[in-house]
């Protein structure tokens, strides 16, 4: 199954920053559990970004869904361990520092459960900060009429690619521009041959929006990702210092 997802310009005004980051860490994006239940390991998520000052966007790559991450996944992982006695731990602790936020991976586990099965357990737990991620693949930039939207939606990449091959310009003055929106239906989510991972994270902090808070965030990223200090405490200390 293929999906479409936009990378906002607020955190990534230059897409090269995202590509560099993805090469180092892979891709991980926040996702609503109501959408996650429609995903499965092996799905492709094609990445777009709105072109500044224009009414079209560009597709620059995709990632393959390989892992579900989240905070407070203890109960979910314990349940999976009972169901899968041979569940295998893999990657150990790793600090992830992105332009859009940061977190620390405690441990990941290889699982044979599908994403919908994992999501069902997540919905019954107190897990939060759910992300879906995987390996990034860079593609030649293609321009499209598809407008910016948040979240994920099913994407008919086969038709998109077919139209690109038929007519690279499609009558447009923009090189390699593909006309159309290429909506698709959610397909069957069962994927018995795909093995994925589930990972526990901590110290998750989303990059703030205000300039004052961004400066604080950038100055304390290392302490935040290692858990030496909490984001709320930094903000509270800042408020108290301004009042004194």
What is the ordering of alpha helices and beta strands?
Answer: EHEHEEEHEEEHEEEHEEHHH
Rg estimate, integer Å: 20 Å
Average pLDDT score: 90
Helix content estimate: 25-40%
- Quaternary status of these chains? single chain
Walk me through the structure.
- The structure is a single chain.
- The protein is an alpha+beta fold and 244 residues long.
- The protein has one domain (2-91, 111-202).
- 30% of the residues lie in helices and 32% in strands.
- It has 8 helices and 13 strands.
- It has helices at 15-25, 33-36, 74-83, 115-123, 157-166, 211-219, 221-226, 231-243, and strands at residues 2-6, 27-30, 44-50, 57-64, 67-71, 88-89, 94-98, 101-111, 128-134, 136-144, 152-154, 177-178, 196-206.
- Strands 2, 5, 6, 7, 8, 9 and 13 form a 7-stranded mixed β-sheet that branches. Strands 11-1-3-4-10-12 form a 6-stranded mixed β-sheet.
- β7 (94-98) and β8 form a beta hairpin.
- The longest helix is centred in the C-terminal third of the chain and has 13 residues, at 231-243.
- The chain is globular, with a radius of gyration of 20 Å.
- The termini are far apart.
- The model has no long low-confidence stretch (mean pLDDT 90).
